[in-house]
Amino acid sequence: LRFFAGDYKGDPCADPELVEKGYSRGVPMGGELGALRKKKSPMFVVSAFKDPGGGGDPSTPLQRVQIIKGWLDELGQTHEEVFEVAGDPDNGATVDTDTCTPAGTGFDSLCAVWEDPGFDPAQRAFYYARVIENPVCRWSTHLCNAEGVDCDIPASIPAGLENCCEYGAPLTIQERAWSSPIWYRPESIGKFKGAVKVKGEGKDTVKLKASLQSVPAELDPNTEDITITVTDDDTIYAATISAGTMTEKKPGAVWALSEPSGTPDGIKKATFKINAKGEGKLSVSTVSLDLANADLTNHFVETTITASTYSARHSRLWTVKGVSLKSQN
User: Fold this and answer.
1) Tell me: the pLDDT tens digits for 38-90?
2) Of 152, 184, 216, which one is at a domain's C-terminal end?
């Protein structure tokens, strides 16, 4: 089971590079996502293959795939909604409970691209995928059948197996797998451009541009330190813009920092803008640096922005182009 959310081109399910693009243009299960597509829902991609079986256990076809959305309303009440996104919940698959022989069709694999029809870009939400197999006998049904229990002849029921006829447990089940959730946060990083240029000899540079659908109060350059960190298994680059360092060009809307010498922490230029809708853009570029921990190979890179209690992260598969390591979005 694979589950991604992001901004994808074409039909990811038909793309042989689904996995690579899933990681480079979006986040996998367990990831955090901002408003990548402005007011439009992220694109969710779920791909599942049936269990191959083994060890004497048969493989069971898949029946359907669901995506479950959860959120809090303005009153703090929790909600969940289940969406059928692939397969067929009414495929007619059955199982003979006397022999545990399954019947009916199913799927070896399922894939779907889905967008949330009720998406609200201003509302936090989580999403996870659930994959459901065709019906099979419950373990207790296998046990009772193996012991030859016949509920129509009470005297024939072996001692200790009375629950085969009296317990009331279902005779069949539908095994399932589910993903970790993907978390949507309007205040997290949405559209993003990142580039680390690795020339060596102290000539390396960093350029970052991050957009936020909703700027939290904590992200205030006048009163809070803003820290930007770029990491993989090491810290590639880290910088802190101290509170009050940026010049407020337009009250509450535009801040700028220009320091050709690269003080503080190698930052040459930085701007932070908040529009009338409360959407923000943070840009940072550096002077030439020695980024000894920057690896010119395709790999995961995480960028975090923190200020006071606020924290947002952007994690993607960055790819190499020439002497640059770049993110796709």
Assistant:
1) 899 999 999 999 998 888 778 999 999 999 999 999 999 999 999 999 999 99
2) 184
For 41, the token pair is: 């829902």
Angstrom distance (rounded) from CA 11 to CA 47: 12
Residue 180 is part of which domain span? 2-135+174-184
Q: Which helix (H) or strand (E) holds 317?
A: strand 310-321
Q: How far is CA 101 from CA 106, 133, 149, 285, 287, in A?
A: 14, 15, 17, 64, 69
Query: How many C-beta neighbours within 10 Å does residue 166 have?
Result: 11
Q: Dump the DSSP string for 4-20.
A: EEE---S-GGG-TTHHH
**CA distance linking residue 310 with residue 222, whole number of Å:** 15
In this structure, is residue 12 part of a structural domain?
yes
Asked, for residue 72, whether it belongs to a domain, the answer is yes
- pTM as predicted: 0.92
